[in-house]
Automatic annotation (TrEMBL):
One of its GO terms (cellular component) is cytoplasm. Residues 223-232 have a biased composition (Basic and acidic residues). This is Putative E3 ubiquitin-protein ligase UBR7. CDD domains: PHD_UBR7, UBR-box_UBR7. GO terms for molecular function: ubiquitin protein ligase activity; zinc ion binding. It comes from Seriola lalandi dorsalis. A zinc finger (UBR-type) spans 33-105. E3 ubiquitin-protein ligase which is a component of the N-end rule pathway. Recognizes and binds to proteins bearing specific N-terminal residues that are destabilizing according to the N-end rule, leading to their ubiquitination and subsequent degradation. Residues 33-105 form the UBR-type domain. The lineage of its organism: Eukaryota, Metazoa, Chordata, Craniata, Vertebrata. Pfam families: zf-UBR (PF02207).
Amino acid sequence: MCEEQTVSLVDVLEEDEELEEEASAVLAGSDSDHCSYPQGYVKRQALYACNTCTPKGGEAAGVCLACSYKCHEGHDLFELYTKRNFRCDCGNRKFTELQCKLYPDKDEVNSLNKYSHNFFGVYCTCSRPYPDPDDQVEDEMIQCVVCEDWLHGRHLGCVVPDCVELQEMICEFCMNKHPFLWTYSVHLAVPGAAAQVKEETGGNSNTDVPNKEEQVDDVIEPSSKRSREEVKPSCKLKELQGTGQNRVQSGAVFWPSAWRSKLCSCNTCQERLSEAGLSFLLDESDTVLAYEKKGKNNEQRQQGQDPLMSALDNLNRVQQLEIIHGYNDMKTELKDFLQRFAAEGKVVTPDDIRQFFEQQQSRKRRRVDAGRFYCT
């Protein structure tokens, strides 16, 4: 007979903490009780696609967090993580047999929404589901900040750098769609990946990668000397193009934190970004990291509103102290109880938990009985 696989309490607690942090980062930045439709095209929010209501072959549609709970409970949902500038579709023309319970008065379609194959549960250039039951290779999925598709690390065409969770990625397709991004990548992108891509492709003499000693702060300045009298705002992009430096235009590109602040924001470049639908690149608060930070802050504020403390406000001082002491005692005893299992690497069973609370009840009865002895 096969030995049953078990995990220690330490493993369970660590995994639970990671899941809670991830959920807080993604979900706490969105409203779980009210449909986001009245807010219009929300800057960034958690989204879902319903395979039950809008299966593949039909029109793509996305629903907000609250509608995923209230209107699509029990449905087959695809979690899309977050997407920008999206308005909730729940109950509109795309849902022939469902009406939104939270905000039924909606336009037939949201014409400014952008959709991809993600809304039908497939991702990456390989158009596979995630998790993929037929793929045994362990590989992380990374989201492109432009098209917002998720791609396997091995399908990016470059080496994935360390600390990738603190960086932004633009896939090769989006880089080629907006060629001026290649100019920025020479000077602003995470170093290393470009050189490795060049080695893999053989490279050409006219696509040299900048030397390591060339720093970002140095190259974004004009290459030619300018007189002190010249104070007109210049175009950073033109100055970078004037350096004559290029890189292998192949593979995805990774960008370090705060790289957006170094993009040119002159009138010409703002118009270029607007026409390309990339104005969000000048907004550092548009990043997923900024959204996640907002979600964690919201979660911390909600945790600060302890329901126990709210209930205590309606009790007198003596009752408040008794409940607080009892609560703290139980929390300390439960922590000590679980730490013994963690220290020994043992699994906590339902019987162990049941026994703990039976002991708590027994101690409570003994304290009550002892109190009666001293009553007059």
